[in-house]
Amino acid sequence: MSTMTAPAREAVRAADRVAAARRRVSTGETIVQTLAMAWRALKKMRRNPEQFFDVALQPILFTAMFAFIFGGAIAGDVQSYLPLMIPGILAQTVLTTCMATGTQLREDMEKGVFDRFKSLPIARIAPLAGPMVADLLRYTIAATLTFGMGLVMGYRPGGGAGGVLAAVLLAIITGWSLAWVFTWVGTIARSAQAVQSISMMILFPLTFLSNAFVPVETLPGWLAAFVRINPVSHLVTAARDLANSALVSGEVAWTLLACLIVIAIFAPLSVRSYKRHM
Amino acid sequence: MSITKLGRTGGGPASGGGTDLAVRAEGLAKTFGGHRAVDGIDLDVRPGEIFGVLGPNGAGKTTMLRMLATLLQIDAGRAEIFGVDVAGNPHMIRQLVGVTGQYATVDENLTARENLWLFSRLQGIAAPRARRIAVELLGQFDLEEAADRPIAQFSGGMRRRLDLAASLITRPPLIFLDEPTTGLDPRTRGQMWDTIRGLVADGCTVLLTTQYLDEADQLADRVAVIDHGRKVAEGTPDELKTAVGNSALQLVLAEPDEAPTAVEVVRRVLGSDPVLSPEQGRLNVALDQADLAADVLIALRAAGVSISSVSVAKPSLDEVFLALTGHGADGDEEISDTEISDIEISTEENR
Predict the structure, then answer these.
(1) Chain A: nearest CA to B137, how far in angstroms?
(2) Contact list, B72 vs chain A (CB under 8 Å)
(3) At what angle do helices A250-276 and A126-152 cross, to 10 degrees?
């Protein structure tokens, strides 16, 4: 700290600063700030690569496991189960990935640096949205590995490369949207562990009470009713149509609509509860 | 004891830019559960001054600062910073105030340079300028060598420096420092003091909290003493010290039973009562002049009171609190007499 004896700098004038101060954050500023936060999250990922374990292992493990366990029972054999299951696994991995968003946000928010983020003149949504932008990378890895593993096991998607890419893209969009639910949980829960257990309770019904692994027709009526309105079912059906037959069905629209509704509800809720926190 | 209000003679720097005070707070209050952490505090901080908020742990200093910095909601009362309402315009306030917390608020996952870069970018500074500012601040705070090391390897002093550097990126006109030197060694503390003086020389206003009377004495133009969420005194450091005597005579009696006699003797010699410490047989005597210590000792000898130890020191925060509130600076274990007297020595040199 060789103090400020150095070059005589222009004096700080409070009156000028007050005159120059803006009352609100503009949209452009919000985007720049969100990207700066995303940069921070990416740096953090690079320095803590163990974060990628779940993203990398789960698709590989689950694809193999589910194919051999359920394949024979549900579809007769593993080969014919793959087109049904891979899009299901895709939805499941993406959901698990976005669950981590909430847990990590909670952990992060307990650190001192969040105090500084709050004291800076930045959009309140930036510290929440930044990590979610960086998480796009994780969704991409998870989705790619799922299809990769499927291909290794003999899955030959009828929709071709274009269909598969579209399915992956849809899954990423859905994951990012649903992540707002977990972000909200992250801002209301008291600890990272609490986020984890609350998220599990949301995640399990969403993934397993869907058509991800079993055909809906085999379910009792009351359960089938829930499965049909579950947004994960729409994602799975849409992804199946895209990957297996390059068909852009109405399910895509339903999925995107569900995403929009989730964002419209949970993004404002998250920001509000983040503001109130601390 | 009543509040010592002081009017600094002369206009001071305030007369320059307009009539706005740097900070004006009225009846500021915050309640956590049923506990009133800040219980109606008025504060006037003039532009260009260093204003010290002195108090023990748990007195409400940090809570007050966090309310002023928009980090906590104001439950009652109102506050303005350079004439801008804190509750009504938080975004403007955040552009005017730099906050350095008690605990380092930098990102552990980034290097020092990356931290400064991130905070610059967040505040809308273009990439090339952000890089330049980072280099400048790293140099100014002696962090060039550590610039690209992870923060996890930083010492406490280095973190504090980086933290302060991060608060200065946009050169805000008002800077809040929450206990800027708690836990720092005396040398680093002295450097921090120089830096804080440099900020004011640049035209900034500084509002700092501290547990150390000596720090307030060294740095602050004016001081408010806070206890249990209330302001118990305000004035220049000199006025505060006069209120408690310029020095304090500490006596430990060989026979604690003789305490009443000793109190009687002190009252006769000085015309005021000494403060009996919680420990048996320990007396604190406020003195206007250190010379009077001899008078007290001679009178005690004449009265046949024997003493096991004697020391004369500048008043510690504890004594200020005893004098102002009638109770000690409780909840404050960190501050020890030895610590104070250590700093006292450097105080003498600096003045």
Answers:
(1) 10
(2) 278
(3) 140
**Are the C-beta atoms of residues A67 and A85 closer than 8 Å to each other?**
yes
Per the CB < 8 A criterion, the answer to whether B177 and B19 are in contact is: no
Domains B12-241 and B247-313 are alike in CATH topology: no
Which CATH number is B247-313's, of 3.40.50.620, 3.30.70.100, 3.20.20.70, 3.30.565.10?
A: 3.30.70.100
Q: Do residues A157 and A244 lie in contact, with contact meaning Cβ atoms separated by under 8 Å?
A: yes
B109 and B101 Cβ atoms separated by less than 8 Å: no
> At how many degrees (to 10) do helices A78-109 and A160-188 cross?
30
Cβ neighbours for B227, distance < 8 A, ≥ 6 positions apart: B55, B56, B59, B321, B324, B325
Q: Which of B244, B296, B291 is nearest to B267 (CA)?
A: B296
Q: Does A9 touch chain B (CB under 8 A)?
A: yes
Q: Which of B121, B176, B111, B97 is nearest to B148 (CA)?
A: B111
Put simply, the answer to whether B82 touches A17 (Cβ < 8 Å) is yes
Token pair belonging to A246 = 């390059």
The DSSP line for A82-111 is: HHHHHHHHHHHHHHHHHHHHHHHHHHHHTS
Per-residue pLDDT reduced to its tens digit, B180-194: 888 888 888 888 899
How many Å apart are CA A132 and CA A134, to the nearest integer?
5
Q: How far apart are CA A76 and CA A27, in angstroms?
A: 54
Tell me the pLDDT tens digit for each residue of A183-227.
999 999 888 889 989 988 888 888 888 888 888 888 888 989 888
pLDDT at A47 over 90: no
**Of B72, B122, B204, which is closest to A120 when you measure between CB atoms?**
B122
Q: Is the CB of A44 inside 8 Å of chain B's CB atoms?
A: yes
For A171, A278, B231, the CA distances from B55, given in Å and listed in that order, are 56, 23, 9
CA angle A207, A248, A152 (to 5 degrees): 60
Q: Where are the domains of chain B?
A: 12-241, 247-313
Which DSSP state fits B210? Answer: E
Q: What is the ipTM of this complex?
A: 0.84
Mean pLDDT over residues B44-70, rounded? 92
Cβ atoms of residues B90 and B70 within 8 Å: yes
| Residue keyed to tokens 């969040």 | A114
Chain B nearest C-alpha distance from A107 (Å):
13
Answer yes or no: do A37 and B122 touch at CB < 8 A. Answer: yes
CB neighbour list of residue A246: distance below 8 Å, 6 or more residues apart:
A158, A159, A160, A162, A163, A166
The DSSP bridge pattern shows strands B230-235 and B222-227 to be antiparallel
Q: To 5 degrees, how large is the angle CA A80–CA A85–CA A87?
A: 125
- Show the 3-state SS of A134-169: HHHHHHHHHHHHHHHHHHHCCCCCCCHHHHHHHHHH
Do the Cβ atoms of B91 and A29 come closer than 8 Å? no
Q: Which CATH architecture has domain B12-241?
A: 3-Layer(aba) Sandwich (3.40)
Number of Cβ within a 10 Å radius of residue A141: 16
Cβ separation B173–A48 shorter than 8 A:
no
Amino acid identity at A116:
R
* CA separation for the pair A63, A227 (Å, rounded): 22
